[in-house]
């Protein structure tokens, strides 16, 4: 065999091997494409066999199925969605009309039940709209309008009403449609014109009640402060009077003691000084007194040569 023929045989053999490898890879790729299902995070895949759902794959990764037309894979998005309900006019317990626009956050929790009962996102939103609307009508019938628009924190019950709406819808949505509702909340509240005046009047009345209460509390505090101040002033005055009386008594006692000592030392001088003191008290600059001078202490006024 010539060298050129040997080289040509080797090249043909390599080419055939490459063709067989490519063909095998294509067959494997086609087989994987026909039987493999890629499940992304946040999605689920519903496997149907001859149109009948048989299982749900929810773990992210690669899953397997029979090739089409035996099995068919339907991707279901399980991420949380936001849905706005339609405007709904309803009556409160005190017979006031309100128009509530709410929104709900939801996700597909049971893909099999969702596909069987609803089939699409649009169908799910229609079901949710009717379910939440019925819940709003029932829940608002148990609450007054003040629970939605009051300025009093104790009267306002928006969060409690939203919790009631969620409780009234979550189990039904899960059982019937395989949908998990995670939140129901108010987005906007509208009032008919005739109710606007009522709401403003109610708010003014509530503000007046607050003002009256604060005024009464302030008056009570002021009276308490004045009472405490008067009591403290009376206590201080009593203490001062007591101290003044004590000082006066001590002074009088000391003066009496001094008078007694002076009287013992010189009775005549003592009487003379006491007489002068008496005259000083009785007779002033503008006083005219006609008295006998033969009695004490006026005998001191008589001139003696």
How would you characterize the overall build of this protein?
By secondary structure, the chain is α+β, with helices and mostly antiparallel strands. Among the domains are: 3-77, no CATH class; 92-191, 2-Layer Sandwich (Tetrahydropterin Synthase, Chain A), CATH 3.30.479.30; 266-300. The protein contains 7 helices and 9 strands; from the N terminus they run αββββββββααααβαα. The protein has helices at 3-35, 111-117, 121-140, 146-149, 158-177, 193-265, 267-282; strands spanning 36-39, 43-49, 52-57, 61-64, 71-77, 81-84, 88-91, 97-108, 179-190. Strands 6, 7, 8 and 9 form a 4-stranded antiparallel β-sheet that branches. The chain has a 3-stranded antiparallel β-sheet with strand order 3-2-5, with no helix packed on it. A hairpin with a 5-residue loop joins strand 7 (88-91) and strand 8 (97-108). Helix 6 runs antiparallel to helix 7 (267-282). The termini are far apart. The model has no long low-confidence stretch (mean pLDDT 76).
């Amino acid at each position: 065999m010539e060298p050129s023929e040997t080289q040509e045989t080797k090249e043909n053999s390599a080419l055939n091997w490459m063709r067989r490898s490519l063909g095998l890879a294509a067959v494997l790729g086609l087989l994987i494409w026909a039987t493999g299902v890629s499940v992304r995070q946040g999605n689920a895949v519903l496997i149907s066999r001859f149109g009948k759902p048989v299982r749900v794959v929810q773990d992210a990764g690669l899953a397997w199925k029979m090739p089409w037309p035996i099995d068919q894979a339907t991707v279901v998005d399980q991420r949380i969605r936001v849905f706005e309900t339609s405007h709904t006019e309803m009556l409160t317990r005190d017979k006031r009309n309100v128009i509530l626009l709410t929104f709900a956050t939801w996700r597909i929790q049971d893909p099999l039940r969702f596909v069987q009962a609803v089939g699409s996102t649009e169908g799910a939103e229609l079901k949710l709209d009717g379910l939440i609307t019925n819940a709003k009508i029932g829940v608002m019938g148990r609450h007054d309008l003040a629970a939605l628009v009051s300025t009093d924190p104790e009267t306002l019950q928006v969060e409690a009403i939203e919790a009631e709406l969620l409780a009234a819808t979550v189990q039904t949505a899960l059982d019937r449609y395989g949908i998990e509702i995670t939140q129901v909340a108010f987005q906007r509240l509208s009032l008919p014109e005739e109710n606007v005046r009522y709401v403003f009047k109610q708010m003014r009345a509530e503000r007046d009640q607050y003002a009256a209460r604060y005024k009464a509390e302030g008056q009570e505090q002021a009276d308490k402060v004045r009472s405490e101040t008067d009591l403290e002033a009376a206590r201080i005055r009593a203490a001062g009077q007591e101290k003044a009386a004590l000082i006066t008594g001590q002074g009088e006692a000391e003066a009496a003691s001094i008078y007694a000592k002076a009287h013992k030392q010189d009775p005549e001088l003592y009487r003379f000084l006491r007489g002068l003191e008496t005259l000083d008290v009785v007779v002033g600059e503008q006083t005219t007194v006609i008295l006998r001078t033969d009695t004490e202490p006026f005998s001191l006024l008589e001139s003696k040569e």
